[in-house]
């Protein structure tokens, strides 16, 4: 009875081992059948500036590095890798400072310490208009980083959201012109102040005119016109002359 049980267990174990070996062989075969990164990239020749010559010129390590950099910028599909290969190794390689920072190791708050690199990343990796990016002041970028952080907080994300996600959100906001800045607020305040000063000046000017007009009208109440002034003067002179004539006549009568 014991021998039969042992024999049965041995047979089951042997069968299990054979099945496991067969499954392992099948997985290995499937892995070998998966196309390599190089083979996959060849399907994208003609897109994103990618050429077969460029792909074949690069080593496996260089291709893997481009894929890694693409992942750092939250572009984790093969098209992102294809774009990055062209940017890194094409005819006009982008500046190293635009992609060498691993933003995935930073928090959103940490981005405030990498503003020069962020400008380059926005221009060369995210393809934003250089004039638009360069016209953003450092304070505007900091303000934008804070805004992105608030957006993530409102969506119940952890407080230590990775910097690469924050940078991608910044790029999206700049593309959509969906952001506010302290500079813009300052301009608004300055504009309001200017308008207020202008209003005060207008009010003061109007007040002065009203005062002058009132004073003039008051004076006109006494001597409304030059003609009236002359008429009063002639009347006084006439009275004086009549008085003199009367005095002269009286004196002659006495004589």
From TrEMBL:
It comes from the Bacteria. Residues 1-28 have a biased composition (Polar residues). InterPro entries: LPXTG_anchor (IPR019931). It holds the Pfam family Gram_pos_anchor. Residues 1-30, 185-222 are annotated as: Disordered. Keywords: Cell wall, Membrane, Peptidoglycan-anchor, Secreted, Signal, Transmembrane, Transmembrane helix. Residues 223-255 form the Gram-positive cocci surface proteins LPxTG domain. The keyword Coiled coil does not apply. The chain crosses the membrane at residues 232-250. This is LPXTG cell wall anchor domain-containing protein. Residues 191-215 have a biased composition (Low complexity).
């Amino acid at each position: 009875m014991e021998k039969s049980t042992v024999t049965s267990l041995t047979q089951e174990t042997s069968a299990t081992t054979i099945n496991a070996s067969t499954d392992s062989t099948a997985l290995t075969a499937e892995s070998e059948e998966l196309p390599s990164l190089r083979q996959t990239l060849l399907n994208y020749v003609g897109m994103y500036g990618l050429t077969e010559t460029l792909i074949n010129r690069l080593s496996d390590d260089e291709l893997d590095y481009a894929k890694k950099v693409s992942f750092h910028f939250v572009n984790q599909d093969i098209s992102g890798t294809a774009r990055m290969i062209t940017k890194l190794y094409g005819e006009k390689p982008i500046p190293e400072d635009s992609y060498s920072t691993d933003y995935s190791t930073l928090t959103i708050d940490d981005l405030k310490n990498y503003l020069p690199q962020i400008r380059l990343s926005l221009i060369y990796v995210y393809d934003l208009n250089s004039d638009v990016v360069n016209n953003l002041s450092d304070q505007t970028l900091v303000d934008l980083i804070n805004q992105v952080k608030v957006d993530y907080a409102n969506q119940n994300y952890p407080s230590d959201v990775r910097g690469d996600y924050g940078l991608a959100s910044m790029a999206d906001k700049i593309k959509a012109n969906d952001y506010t800045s302290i500079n813009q607020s300052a301009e608004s305040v300055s504009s309001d102040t200017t308008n207020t000063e202008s209003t005060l000046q207008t009010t003061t000017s109007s007040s002065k005119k009203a005062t002058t007009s009132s004073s003039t009208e008051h004076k006109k109440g006494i001597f409304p016109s030059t003609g009236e002034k002359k008429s009063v003067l002639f009347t006084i002179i006439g009275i004086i002359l009549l008085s003199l004539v009367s005095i002269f006549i009286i004196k002659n009568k006495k004589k």
